[in-house]
Every structure is written in structure tokens, then in C-alpha cells.
Design a protein that fits this description.
Number of strands: 22
Strand order of the largest sheet: 1-3-2-4-5-6
Structural class: alpha+beta
Distance between the termini: 100 Å
């Protein structure tokens, strides 16, 4: 083995492997002129050893050599190089196609026949340099892409996956066809304890499909946490995706809302395979819920009020949700898993107790090691008491009382109803009860045309009770812009320190043939609101506080403060 001194302007290192010293000298001279530092080997074994030490950028390999020939040496070098591209240029006296084919199959990137032209050899080396540079650039781009994907994966995990709830009760499996899944599973509890579940399948797969999951998760979790009903959440997600997604991209979705007492389940199917209601004991499919609307992100301002199936008396049952990637999964024979095989898994007399495990096991056996073209999702929602366990200290205590349907049906008419919401201690700082109350009113009575007015009335009475009853804030602080800033700064500080006290809001609805009456009663544990002083000041032109209460007076038929000012009742009338 020989090694030339490092060329002062060497840009690369070349390894020459040839048992003929004269040939090595000719090649060394040529490569030196091209700016290479050259190392020499007399046989294939030495070439492999030199590669391990010096990691040359290019290899000029003679095909016939003692100890180890060029073909075997090339196999070893290519194996050692791994993902790093090391061009190997064979120099051979052989002209038969079999030998030349063996050189290429061993990992050779090109060859030149003896006797060779220096001009041709120089051109071949330059060509290898260009390929080497392209590989280097590609490696840099790939490394950057891997880093970006890792960052995106962490962000995706935190924004979409990490905040899911009830995963210890649900059974779920999502297999991505690439680094990122276009299928997404979102779960969240509402303040009332209802469990919202969204299983979605974006068009395509990979990062482009996964990007849509982030705004979907943001809308879903924010609205569920505020107590919006599922129809409103689906509508908001749909409008968001219609705005953000390019034409041709959409979200097929299953959306479930499981009531806090397991009294009912609302099932929305927007372009997904049938959702299956099954009896775990008999292993029968009791009901199939097919698609009732197109996928989300296609038709803006779509309404979903009547696009669901309402399941009742389903305690103890399970609901199976799948994406079309499962139905269209293929085996080595290019057969589809199919809906029929899915049904057979559910009916199967297998020793596996859960339908999820039976389907999952069958899917694994069916697909084997075949790479799938689409993301695969499988979710089982067992309708068991553990699913609805919610800590009341986090969500407040919700106490409905009604002579209408216990499921809060929108079809209630002709009967009065009452319900209340009590918030205590730290819950007051972390919850907004108004959407919960408004949504319950909508569920029980409708009143869509009065939603804005009722939202204003309930909000103003609740905020007034919190600010002046519990937090003891002085309205006189709201004099001028600086006063408002100071007021809200002080409000935030005191709200963060709340650890006791309560605010209770009661709603009573009395409909009649031509309209109805809605009474809102708000009581707090504070010192009370000085309503008498407010009445004296409300006619002054420089009034900076009490505007909300004045607006409530204008919207309502009656507004009465009682006790020490910590209890107020407003009566709102409506006409059909």
C-alpha cells in the first residue's frame, strides 16, 4: 500500500486499486493533475483496508487482482459506505457482457475498458465528481428535511395528540403510511361532562394532510371546552377548513358526542365508512350509521342540526369507527380487507373479548409486512360509566331540572323547564358558563333569533356578579382609558387568586303559543352590587360603568336586585 503526500490544493482523495505498478503510476499522475490526493492498493483486500482508514471520495478499481478481486472489494466498500455515495470506476480488460454486468451489480458506477484514453478517463472522473456533488447536496437537503420533520412531529404531537382525554378508556390505533398521518383522533370533555370525539381522515397522507389537523384541533378543543354543542363545533371546523384548505383537500370525519350520563350518543358521519353500534355480549351489529353529509371543508356554512343519528339506551354497547384506509388495506395478493371481513371480525367467536382486538389481530394477519398506500385508523368507544368520569371541581356542577325530554331535545315545546349551573372557587377563574347556558337553551327551546340578546343578558349579569360580588371591584375605576386598563389588570389579579365563593345561574323557561318568558337568576356569595347607587348615577352623561346593566334593562321586561344586591333576576320576553 502506498500513499502520496497530500496535494497542496487537493479537493478530494482518490483510491487506486491495481496490481500493476505501472498502471497505478499513470493513474496517480493523471489524478494529481486533476487535484486529487491519491492512495494506492495492490489488491482488493488492501483497498478495503485503505477505505476503512481514509474514506476516499472516489475509487478507481481494477477488475482482476490477486488476494481479492475488484468485484469482491467493491461489494465490501459499498457495504462499508452505507448511505454515503462513493463512486467506483472499474478499469477492466474484459469485454464480455457477463463480466461487465458483474462489475455494475457489485456496486460499480461506471467502467472503462483497457487500453483506455486519458481523455475518456478524465471525462469519467469529472462525471463522477458532478454526481458526488449532487449526492452531497441531496444529503444536506435530506438532513434539513429530517430536522424539519422532527420539529413538525413534536409540534404536531403537542398540538394535536397530547391534549386528548379518555385514552385509557377508548381503544384506538392509527397507522400512518408515511412519517405523518392524515388521520387524526381528537377527544375532549365539555364543561357539562359530555365527551366529544372526532376521528378524521384528510385527503391524502403525509405532512400536507397532517397540517390540516392543527387548526381542526384548535377549533375542536376551544369550543368543546367552552361548552358549545357538537353541531356548532362541526360547523366551525367545516368553515375553518373551507377557508384554509386548497381545492380538492377535505376532511372526512366521524363525530361523536357521548352525554355525561350515557343517556344518549349523537353520531355524525361526514363521508366516512359506516360507524357500527355493537353489543359486546352477543357480538351483533345493532345499527349502522352511514354518511349523512359530505366531508368537512367542501361546503361552507353547512348546517348540521339534522345530520346525526341519536342513539339511546346504549349503555354497555360499543361503537366502532374506522377510516377507509382500513377497508382498503391490501395483502400480498392485492386483496382488500373490505367491509365484509370487518363484519366477520365483529361476529367472530374468537377468544379476544373486545371487537377492537379481534379487528386489529385480523388486520395484522391479513396485511403482513405489505406497505399500505393509505393511513389506517381503528377506534372502539365503549359506552361504560368510566368514560363519563369528570372531576366536578374542574367543570362546575351542572344540575338540570326539566319536565321536558331528559336528553335536552330541540323538539321541546309547550312545557316549561328549569336548569342551573353553579361555579365554585377556582372554577370561576377557569370557566366560561355562558356558552353552556346558551347551548342548553338552544337544545331545549331553540330561540335562535334571540341568541345574541340572551347571550348579552346572561353575560352581563354573570360578569357583574363576579366583578362586583366576588372580586369587589369598584366601578369608579373605569374613568377614562387608563382607568379601564387598571380595572382589568386588577380584575385579572383578583380572579387568579379566587379560591372560594360561588356564582349560581338559574334559567327558567315558560313558553306559550305566541312566544314565552325566560327568567335568568344570578346569585353570588359576595357583598353584593350597590344597585341603588347605580340607579342614581345611570342618567349622568359621564357614566363609565353600568352600561351593561343598562343594556340588560333595555332588553328585558324586568330587572330586580334583592337581598343585599347579590341576587338579581331578569325576565326576557319573546314573541314568535
Amino acid at each position: 500500500m502506498e500513499q502520496t503526500p497530500k496535494h497542496p490544493h487537493a479537493k478530494h482523495t482518490a483510491l487506486i486499486a491495481d496490481d500493476d505498478a505501472a498502471s497505478r503510476q499513470i493513474l496517480l499522475s493523471l489524478l494529481n493533475k486533476l487535484g486529487y490526493r491519491v492512495i494506492e492498493a495492490e489488491n482488493g483486500s488492501q483497498a478495503v483496508q485503505l477505505y476503512q482508514v481514509d474514506h476516499p471520495d472516489i475509487v478507481i478499481m481494477d477488475q482482476k487482482m490477486p488476494v481479492m478481486d475488484g468485484i469482491e472489494a467493491t461489494k465490501h466498500i459499498k457495504s462499508l459506505a452505507g448511505d454515503v455515495f462513493v463512486p467506483v470506476l472499474f478499469i477492466t480488460a474484459a469485454s464480455d457482457e457477463t463480466t461487465l454486468s458483474q462489475c455494475i451489480e457489485a456496486g460499480g458506477d461506471d467502467f472503462i475498458s483497457k487500453p483506455y484514453s486519458h481523455t475518456v478517463l478524465r471525462s469519467k472522473v469529472h462525471a463522477m465528481e458532478r454526481i458526488l456533488e449532487l449526492h452531497s447536496q441531496l444529503r444536506e437537503v435530506n438532513n434539513h428535511l429530517v430536522t424539519e420533520q422532527e420539529i413538525a412531529r413534536k409540534v404536531f404531537s403537542q398540538a394535536v395528540v397530547a391534549n386528548n382525554v379518555a385514552l385509557d378508556i377508548l381503544r384506538a390505533k392509527i397507522l400512518s403510511a408515511t412519517h405523518f398521518s392524515g388521520d387524526v383522533l381528537l377527544t375532549a370533555y365539555s364543561p357539562a361532562g359530555d365527551l366529544h370525539i372526532l376521528l378524521g381522515d384528510f385527503t391524502g397522507h403525509g405532512l400536507s394532510a397532517a397540517l390540516g389537523a392543527m387548526p381542526t384541533a384548535e377549533v375542536f378543543r376551544t369550543m368543546a371546552a367552552k361548552g358549545f354543542v357538537c353541531e356548532q363545533i362541526i360547523e366551525a371546523v367545516n368553515n375553518k377548513l373551507c377557508t384554509l384548505l386548497p381545492t380538492g383537500m377535505f376532511l372526512a370525519a366521524h363525530y361523536l358526542c357521548v352525554s355525561h350520563d350515557l343517556g344518549y350518543v349523537k353520531v355524525f358521519n361526514c363521508g366516512m365508512p359506516d360507524a357500527l353500534l355493537i353489543d359486546p355480549e352477543t357480538r351483533n351489529i345493532n345499527q349502522r350509521i352511514g354518511a349523512r353529509s359530505v366531508p368537512l371543508g367542501i361546503v361552507k356554512e353547512q348546517k348540521y342540526n339534522h345530520m346525526h343519528e341519536r342513539l339511546v339506551d346504549v349503555r354497555g354497547c360499543s361503537i366502532i369507527l374506522v377510516s377507509d384506509g382500513l377497508i382498503e388495506a391490501r395483502n400480498r395478493g392485492n386483496e382488500l380487507f373490505g367491509s365484509l371481513r370487518l363484519d366477520e371480525c365483529i361476529h367472530s367467536d374468537s377468544t379476544e373479548v373486545s371487537a377492537f382486538n379481534r379487528i386489529d389481530k385480523a388486520l395484522i394477519e391479513f396485511c403482513g409486512d405489505v406497505t399500505q398506500a393509505d393511513d389506517i385508523s381503528l377506534v372502539e368507544v365503549p359506552l361504560v360509566p368510566e368514560l363519563s368520569l369528570v372531576d366536578d371541581s374542574d367543570v362546575g356542577s351542572f344540575k338540570p331540572q326539566t319536565n321536558a325530554s331528559a336528553e335536552y331535545s330541540n323538539s321541546v315545546s309547550g312545557g316549561s323547564c328549569e336548569f342551573s349551573l353553579a361555579l365554585r372557587g377556582e372554577t370561576i377563574a377557569n370557566s366560561d358558563p355562558v356558552p353552556i347556558l346558551i347551548n342548553q337553551i338552544q337544545e331545549l327551546q331553540g330561540l335562535e333569533l334571540h341568541r345574541a340578546a340572551l347571550f348579552t343578558v346572561i353575560t352581563e349579569l354573570y360578569v357583574n356578579a363576579v366583578d362586583h360580588g366576588l372580586l369587589k371591584l369598584d366601578s369608579s375605576l373605569k374613568t377614562g382609558p387608563e382607568g379601564f386598563a387598571k380595572y382589568f389588570e386588577l380584575r385579572s389579579k383578583r380572579l387568579a387568586d379566587v379560591c372560594s365563593g360561588f356564582v349560581e345561574i338559574s334559567i327558567k323557561i315558560q313558553p306559550h303559543h305566541h312566544g314565552g318568558k325566560l327568567a335568568v337568576k344570578v346569585e353570588d356569595s359576595g357583598d353584593g352590587f350597590d344597585y341603588i347607587a347605580f340607579k342614581k348615577e345611570q342618567n349622568k352623561h359621564d357614566l363609565h360603568s353600568g352600561r351593561g346593566i343598562k343594556l340588560v334593562q333595555e332588553l328585558c321586561e324586568e330587572l330586580n336586585y334583592t337581598h343585599r344586591g347579590n341576587c338579581v333576576e331578569a325576565v326576557y320576553l319573546w314573541k314568535d
